[in-house]
Amino acid sequence: MNPKLQEHHMYHANNKIKCRELQSRVYWAAGAWLDACEKLGYKFTVTEVFRDQQRQDRLYGIGRWLGGDKPVTWTLSSTHSKRLAVDIVVDNCTYHQVGAVAIEYGIRRPLGGFPLYDEGHLEFTHVKSYPIILSVEAKIKALTRGIKRKLPPVKTMLQNQLKRLLSRSK
Ligand SMILES: [Zn+2]
């Protein structure tokens, strides 16, 4: 493998490891987004995912009461402490390009219009919980299979379960 490509893969692998700090229910979106960006040749580094409240409070002070030229964060209650945000620093692409790919998976760049700070901040608050959707689908499949094979009264019981599941997932 040529060194440049190898370096690119390393970026990608490290970003994926870092994104493991996200809530597990939204990790699928991070993986899909990173894969899509790699295919497009976008190189960037995921610099921060989880941040505890103490660190968030300290960051909020920068550019306010702790010194520093300008603020580095806009809020005290960060989606980082909920494990629903990542910060990136771009290398060979723009934040806008990376954000355009991210939005396809429900990942948003809420501060994209504020180039002063936090332009590399992406949020997972609107990402759908893929595993939950999958498990409902899997349940429906299993019930349908069972209904075909079983005889009453088990058949009727399964039919009722399926009815309840379908009305809930609407
Ligand atoms: Zn951030």
Describe the 3D structure.
With 170 residues, this protein is mainly alpha-helical. It has two domains: 3-123, Muramoyl-pentapeptide Carboxypeptidase, domain 2, CATH 3.30.1380; 130-168. The chain contains six helices and three strands. It has helices spanning 3-18, 27-40, 53-61, 95-102, 130-149, 154-168; strands spanning 44-48, 85-90, 121-123. Strands 1-2-3 form a three-stranded antiparallel β-sheet. Helix 1 (3-18) runs antiparallel to helix 2 and helix 5 packs antiparallel against helix 6. The chain is elongated and about 75 Å long. The termini are far apart. Zinc ion is lined by residues 80, 85, 87, 118, 121.
Give helix % range.
Answer: 40-55%
What is the average per-residue confidence, as pLDDT, rounded to a whole number?
85
Largest sheet descriptor: 3 strands, antiparallel
Strand order of the largest sheet: 1-2-3
- CATH class categorisation of the largest domain: Alpha Beta
Q: In the CATH hierarchy, what is the architecture of the largest domain at level 2?
A: 2-Layer Sandwich
- Our count of domains comes out at 2
Structural shape: elongated
Per the CATH scheme, the topology name of the largest domain is Muramoyl-pentapeptide Carboxypeptidase, domain 2
- Give the class from helix and strand content and strand pairing: mainly alpha
H-E string = HHEHEHEHH
Oligomer: single chain
Helix tally?
A: 6
Q: Tell me the span between the first and last alpha carbons.
A: 49 Å
Question: β content, as a range?
Answer: 5-15%
Uncertain segments are none
